[in-house]
Write a structure and sequence with these properties.
Blueprint (H helix, E strand, L loop, with lengths): L1 E8 L6 H18 L4 E9 L4 E8 L2 H11 L5 E5 L11 H4 L1
Length: 97
């Protein structure tokens, strides 16, 4: 599975984010039930930019497009994404210096 980021314009109240997430969860669930391999992970609102970024796991961009169309949500673009995260561990003595 690959990661994809969906970018959409989102003006208006910030509480719309929960509604968008709910619609994406439902659309993903509907498509998974039909055998489409896609997973909606999360949405992030960039308030100052009026942008919403939604992260998906899927085999291709096409599956991500299907989720967004089924949810009835317009978007600006879908791009392949990579992530890196911090490790949840104690620092060694050498790392603390």
């Amino acid at each position: 599975m690959n990661l994809y980021l969906v970018e959409r314009y989102m003006a208006g109240p910030e509480d719309r984010l929960a509604g968008i997430a709910g619609r994406l969860r439902q659309a993903t669930s509907d498509l998974v039930a039909k055998g489409v391999e896609v997973r909606y992970q999360q949405s992030i609102l960039l308030s100052g930019d009026e942008s919403c970024l939604c992260l998906f796991e899927a085999r291709s961009e096409e599956e991500v497009r299907l989720v967004n169309e089924r949810a009835g949500l317009a978007y600006l673009r879908i791009v392949s994404a990579r992530v890196a995260g911090g490790e949840d561990r104690e620092l060694t003595e050498g790392e603390r210096r």
